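Reagents: none. Just compute today. Fibulin-7.
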Amino acid sequence: MNDCPSKQELQNSLRQAHKLLSAHEASYLQSLRTLRKKLSLLQNSTARLSAKPNNATCPKLDAPANGRKLGKILLPGHEIHFLCDAGYELMGSETRQCKESLSWSGQQPVCKDINECASSPCMNGGTCTDEVNGFTCTCAKGWAGPACQSPTPTFFVTITNTSAASAGAAAASSFPPATTSPFVRPSKCTHVQGTTHCTCEPGYTISGRDNSICTDIDECELFHNGQAGRLCLHSCVNTPGGYRCTCPAGYNLTRDGRNCKDIDECANRQNNCTRDQLCINTYGGYQCVRVECNRIRNATYAKTSSTRCERNPCPIDNKACSQAPNSVSHHFMAVVSNLSAPRVMFRVSAVRVMGDTLRFSLLGGRGRRHFTVQRSDRQTGQLLLVTPIQGPTTLEVEVEMSELERKVLLGRYITKITVFVSQYEF
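Predicted 3D structure written out:
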C-alpha cells in the first residue's frame, strides 16, 4: 500500500494553502487600512487640540440666584445642568453644553419666583399675596380660612314677643347647652329690644330653623373642586370647624398645608438598598437597581462604572465581535404620571467624533411607542416623549448611536434608559 500522496493531490493541497494565505492576507490588509484610518483621524484630532491652548475649556458658569448647577467639567462636549430652589421656576436653558468653539450652547438661566397667586387660590373674592414658596389670602367680609373657603359666623334673626319693660332693656346674651358631637356646636345668641341675633364659630353654620344649633361646614364637599381650584392637591379630610389636607405615602405636606412634596428616600437614607445597588428616588418612593453587563454572543464586557459596561478588545479576525456594541450605558429617571408631551427626556452626545457620520436610532424596549429619537445637532441626539404615560408603570427604551466612516461601521454605543412613572401627577 502506497501512503505517499499523488502529484495531483499535492497540487490541490498547495492551491488550498495558497487560497488560505491570500484570504488571511486580504483580511490583514483590511485591518491595517482600518487601523490607518483611525490613526489618521486621531492624529488630526490631536493636531486640532494641540493648536488650542492647554487650558482649552469653556468659561466658568455661575449658578443662578436661588438655584444651583450640576457638573464641573468645562471641556468640549460636557454639559452643565441647572436646578432652581423650591418656590422658583427655571427661565432659560436647563442644560448648556460646552461646544468645540469653547462657547456654551443655550442661554444663561434665571430662577424666577413662582407666582402662587397665578392660579387664583383665594376663593370668594379673597385677595392673594404672593410669598416665597407660598401665598397668603386676605378674605372678603363673610369668609375665612387659608383659602377663604369657610363662611364666617352666620346670623339668624328672629322677632320675639317681649314686654314693653324689656323692650328698652339693655342687651342680654344666652348660651344654649353644649352638644356632645364636635360637628355640632351651640350658637351664641344676643337679645336686643325684641330681636335675637345668633352667631356661630368660624367653620359652622346655623342648623336649619333651629337658631340655637350650629353644624359643621364640610369644606371638602363644598369647595374641594371649586372654580379657584382644588383645596388640596391630593386628599381633603373634613374636621370640626375646618379641614386638613393629606398626602400619600412617600410625600410630605408643604408649608401652605395644601400641596405635597416628594420625600427623597435616597438622600435621606430612608431606603434598604444594599451596597452593590443604586438607589433611584422616584415620585412617592424609590427603586433599588443593580446594573449587570449583558451577555452578548461573540463578545465579552467589563463593568467600568456603576452604570456602564465596555466591550473587551476583539480578536482581529472576529467580525461578529467588532459588530457588537462598544459600550452599554444605563440611565434611570423618575417622572410623574401623564407628563405633558412632546418634551425632551434625554440627550446622547459624542464627545469626540472619529468617523464622518453619527447616526441615532431607537431600538427595542417596553414602551417604545411613547418615544422617538431626533437629532439636535451634529454630535447630539435626543430622546423625545411623544405621548403621555399613565402611571404607575416602568418603561425601558434603548437609544443607539452609531459611528461610521464612509458608511463603514466604526462603533456602536447603546444607552438603556429606564423610566419610573409615578401613579400620581405630582
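The first strand starts at residue 67 and ends at 70.
Action item: order primers for follow-up constructs.
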